[in-house]
Specification:
The protein has 203 residues and is an all-alpha fold. The termini are far apart.
């Protein structure tokens, strides 16, 4: 008499170590997402770089130091607006809160060097030491990024180090190179690293 084959074969049990590996992978990925600020803007950084390049071109033709400073201050406000908008949009698309614990830690590490930069800019401006301002901006911005990088994705520290190195070069360079250094930093570095972040970590 022929044996009857069951319509549905019993599922093969999944080995215990496979379950364990899947669980460990899930826990690791969850901890990485919870412990790092992942809303660093990619395409937003590219946009910030583009506006900085435009500002460098305009500022290089400024007839006075006052108009030069005004040009870069306006660029700073525009860049902050672009950065905040792009971070908020990226966080919303990823379904994560923008003001998470890692984001707050990133901000607390990033802001103090910028506040110091604003205060020192006033001091250097009053002293008439205009040539030191671009290097100061680049270095303190790089210091802020490097400090905040402990709570962000891996590529961010390299970006901060590049800003620090360019800032040192700007401090040693003649004043005529000011806008070229600022354009290379706030323009070129933002575009290069923004594109890399967008490709690897999303826009």
């Amino acid at each position: 008499m022929a044996s009857v084959e069951p319509l549905r074969k019993p599922a093969q049990p999944v080995p215990l170590h496979d379950h364990a590996l899947d669980n460990l992978r899930f826990i690791r990925e969850t901890m990485e997402r919870a412990g790092s600020f992942t809303a660093v803007p990619g395409w937003g950084g590219v946009a910030m770089g583009a506006t900085a390049l435009a500002a460098a071109g305009i500022a290089s033709h400024s007839p006075s130091h006052t108009l030069w400073l005004l040009c870069w201050l306006i660029e700073g406000v525009v860049a902050i607006a672009i950065g905040f908008f792009s971070m908020e949009r990226k966080a919303r698309a990823a379904g994560v809160p923008l003001w998470s614990a890692p984001a707050k830690k990133f901000l607390y590490s990033f802001l103090p060097p910028l506040i110091a930069g604003a205060a020192l800019t006033v001091v250097l401006w009053r002293a008439g030491v205009f040539s030191a301002i671009p290097g100061l901006w680049l270095m303190l911005y790089g210091a802020g990024i490097t400090g905040g990088a402990a709570y962000s994705v891996r590529i961010v520290p390299a970006m901060g180090i590049c800003f620090l190195a360019l800032g040192m070069l700007a401090l040693l360079a003649p004043e005529a190179w000011s806008d070229a250094c600022l354009g290379a930093g706030f323009g070129g570095l933002h575009i290069v690293f923004g594109a890399m972040i967008a490709r690897k970590y999303g826009g």
